[in-house]
Amino acid sequence: MDCPHHQEAGVTVLPMLSLGDAVAARLADHGRTPSVLQAHRQHLAYGPPGIALLHIERAANGLGPWQHSHDWLAAATHGPLTSGPDSHPFYGMPAFAHALACAADHLPGSYRRALDAMDRQIEIDVRRLLDAAHRRIDTGCLPQLAEFDAIRGLTGYGAYLLRRNPGSPTVRAVLAYCVRLTEPIRHSGEDLPGWWTATGPSGSPDERFPGGHANTGLAHGIGGVLALLALAARKSTVTDGHLRALRAILAWLDRWQEETGRGPAWPYWVTRSELRTGRRAASKLRRPSWCYGISGLARAQQLAALAIGDTERQITAENALAAALTDPDQLGATTDNGLCHGFAGLTHIAVRTAEDAHPSTVGRLRAAIPGLLAAICPVDNDFERVATALVSGTGAGPGLLDGAAGTALALLAADTAAPPQSAWDSCLLIA
Fold this sequence. Notes:
By secondary structure, the protein is mostly helical. The chain contains 19 helices and eight strands. The chain has helices at residues 17-26, 34-40, 48-60, 66-76, 93-104, 112-138, 145-148, 154-164, 169-181, 222-234, 242-255, 272-277, 294-308, 311-324, 328-332, 343-355, 362-376, 383-391, 404-416; strands spanning 6-8, 11-13, 185-187, 190-192, 213-215, 258-259, 264-265, 269-271. A two-stranded antiparallel ribbon has the order 1-2. Strands 3-4 form a two-stranded antiparallel sheet. A two-stranded antiparallel sheet has the order 5-8.
């Protein structure tokens, strides 16, 4: 099962394709994971659509048959797919459409009729959400995180639509909403950021967050909006006020940037008391994850800097990521292997960021990758045993966001030293 080391920019990358092979073999037959089908049939994060992405990417790389991905896609459609108010980018028809589109990109003519029908329904649902969001803004009410975040909200929908049809009126309408979201909102006698929510980070009232909070995370906060605006601008899809909104988010992150002694960091959120005093409360150093934390925000800021041609900001973001990925304290706070907040997510963001990095920082980023891979599976470990643990043993299960499929996808990108052949990671708003 072992594969040789390969060299990249003077850095030895650990042979992780073997572990990915072992994970994929355990996920080849959807019948071996019946609990996933029952509980998460329509869920991109935990169920068949996300697992299908692993087999789609492997097939696109010539590492496995397309039949495995087709079987997992079929498993997701054993019942009707949810659309309308009960669906979102990671659940129901939009989640399935993302996986199906990744396969269709490599199978010309396949799935076209189904995708066209789903795209029409998704556009209807997005227009409904946009109408509700603009009515909410017009009345001066604060948003819920689910209105705009990458998992459940309009930022996540925007990522899908931008990939499918970047110049469409619906994409531009989502971007126009994002612009409006960055404008201050007057509430209870105070001017608040337009993305301020009255709840805690869970989306529910929380006594630890009296007066609510401003979420900075890539998954649930303004970091995702920044990434979407940047990705759209890089595709030359812009709307009125687009770059102004992008710079407003960057200014907010600059305002709350902290110096750790090893590099800059940004808080997961800002509370009402912190907003009023202009000072951050003392906090411990947190894990530098995709969903919250330095890695997701550094990638979003790198994308934004590339979009506006700000080389200094680009280098700062890349150095911040490199510092976080080699900081024992921050890595020590990372306790799992998943994409969302574990080592697979750190690895994949490092790979993606290095692809676009400035010559002065690319070496630091690539040099961090072997250590991240070793945290997932030390080189002297038994890949078969680790794969079993990832899929069904001590791991988080077989899914995309926290589990084995996402970990295997990150390992594949790191081992091949090439961008993904499918757009599987576009749902993460990092590419």
